[in-house]
Amino acid sequence: MKNSLITWSESNLTAAKTRLTDPLLVPAYKSLIAAADQALDCSSFSVTHKTTLPPSGDKHDYLSIAPYWWPNASKPDGLPYINRDGEFNPASRDSSTDSIRFKEFTSTLESLSLAYYFSDEQKYADKAVTLLNAWFLDAETLMHPHLEYGQGIAGVTTGRGIGLIDTRNITTIIDSIIILDHVLTKEQRRGLDDWFEQFLHWLSTSKNGLEEKNQMNNHGTFYDSQVACIAIFLGKDDLAKDRIRDTLTSRLPEQFEADGRQPKELHRTRSFHYSSFNLTAYARVARYGHLLGVDLWHADPNNTGSPMLKTAITWLASFIPKPESWAYPELTGVHVLPLAMDGALPVFLQALLEFGKDQDLSTALGIAAKEVPESRDWLIWPVTEADLTTQA
């Protein structure tokens, strides 16, 4: 299956395009166009712009450092670094390495490609192609298709399987490429296909890739989403199905309790974030399963009588109007939970579109409409005002 949207839905984007004057979508559309207009003046992004050399000595190799690892104050040289879960080391988010750069590239490309889709303004497509060319194709600036040096830890390792989480949103890069397909030259599209072919091979065969595949928390789920999406993009549907079926049979029963809780995410110091984070990956894999006839959305591995993903998502949504009742670790404090809606929002929207109106989802989304009305997720997964009411 090639050249159809994969992570996003063409029918949903088409529906949103006919509703750009809908009050529910207007703030999101204005925000999207503002971001795309700003992006027109931005410089291209490249791994070669970092100031720290990877262990290979080649700036074309992606480099990031583990965000929750810090110098050991009890050691003169600070080595080896020690873990402080949930506490970001500022050095992991600066321009000396690539993680923040990749995040900005992905977000900017998404802004431009979606703005092009909704507005039909060629200027957005042209800029998006320039950014793609710099990151993936230009011999002077491209990224080598691997993450050997992702999330290294000083004094411990130069890279880990966990580093694959850095490229979790490569799935939306793929949909941006699909939106831009008729703007790309044949040579550019061939080059992008070749890059993703090599990256998929690395994901499937490397030590870091196989380590991440075996993780039984959000890391493993995001591994599945990346492999499945890239495989679909390259027309390797059988490989994608195998990965999705593994999510269904191996991960889903292991990661969720019958009431929807995720023990492996709830023990983290940012438990709400990681619960919604893992569900983001599941929603993506469920979307890919829908495309290929593997029904993850409605799977009930614990025989509870309700789809496991619906149970988990509505359980999380039930805390949005009463964040003070969240009884799990939360470094930033429960008072910020409604403001965290921008992370959970796409999951709630997809669940409502998939399962239909639900009181917990409708209530949570009603709050989200006030807290984060400008999020582009309203455009990507367009519900209606009626969906946000809780009356029967």
Describe the structure.
The chain is mostly helical and 392 residues long. It has 2 domains: 167 residues, Alpha/alpha barrel (Glycosyltransferase), CATH 1.50.10; 175 residues, Alpha/alpha barrel (Glycosyltransferase), CATH 1.50.10.100. The chain is built from 15 helices and 4 strands. The strands form 2 sheets. The chain has a two-stranded parallel sheet. A two-stranded antiparallel ribbon has the order 2-3. Helix 3 packs antiparallel against helix 4, helix 9 packs antiparallel against helix 11 and helix 13 packs across helix 14. The longest helix has 22 residues. It is globular, with a radius of gyration of 21 Å. The mean pLDDT is 96.
CATH homology superfamily of the largest domain: Chondroitin AC/alginate lyase
CATH class of the largest domain: Mainly Alpha
Averaged pLDDT, please? 96
Secondary-structure class: mainly alpha
Let me know the number of strands.
Answer: 4
- The neighbouring-strand order within the major sheet is 1-4
Instruction: Supply the number of helical segments.
Output: 15
Please name the CATH architecture of the largest domain.
Alpha/alpha barrel
Distance between the termini: 40 Å
Taking the sheet with the most strands, its summary is:
2 strands, parallel
Shape: globular
| Content of β-strand | under 5%
Helix content: 40-55%
How are helices and strands ordered from N to C?
HHEEEHHEHHHHHHHHHHH
Number of domains: 2
CATH topological fold name of the largest domain:
Glycosyltransferase
What radius of gyration results from the CA coordinates?
21 Å
The low-confidence runs, each spanning 5 or more residues with pLDDT under 50, are: none
